[in-house]
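Retro notes (design track)

What went well: tokenization of the new backbones is finally stable.
What didn't: we kept losing track of which sequence belonged to which structure.
Fix going forward: every design gets posted as structure first, then sequence, in one message. First example under the new rule, 105 residues:
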């Protein structure tokens, strides 16, 4: 099973592909040096294969490499960083300004 996590724009997101086909995404918005993750999904036909975890880990690693902090508004991302060590030093709480910056569509 060949997977790849890559950053895309329009809207800003990280996508995971399986054998070259997009099967999931996690959306974010950057606000004042913080990457606010607000939505994650994997296609129903690929649920239960660990793809969401692979996707989120890749997105968080890329965020760390860019020198940004992480704000986990998305319930899946929030659970992921609580369950997996190594992210606490990058976590910030959401502010009203960050929440307002999240696209409504």
């Amino acid at each position: 099973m060949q997977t790849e996590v890559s950053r895309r724009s329009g809207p800003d997101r990280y996508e995971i592909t399986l054998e070259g086909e997009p099967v999931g995404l996690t959306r974010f918005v950057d606000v004042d040096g913080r990457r606010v993750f607000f939505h994650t999904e994997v296609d129903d036909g690929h649920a239960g294969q660990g793809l969401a975890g692979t996707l989120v880990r890749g997105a968080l690693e890329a965020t760390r490499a860019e020198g940004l902090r992480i704000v986990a508004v998305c319930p899946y991302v929030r659970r992921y960083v609580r369950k997996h060590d190594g992210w606490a030093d990058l976590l910030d709480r959401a502010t009203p300004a960050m929440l307002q910056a999240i696209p409504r569509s």
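Added context from the reviewer: The chain has three helices and five strands.
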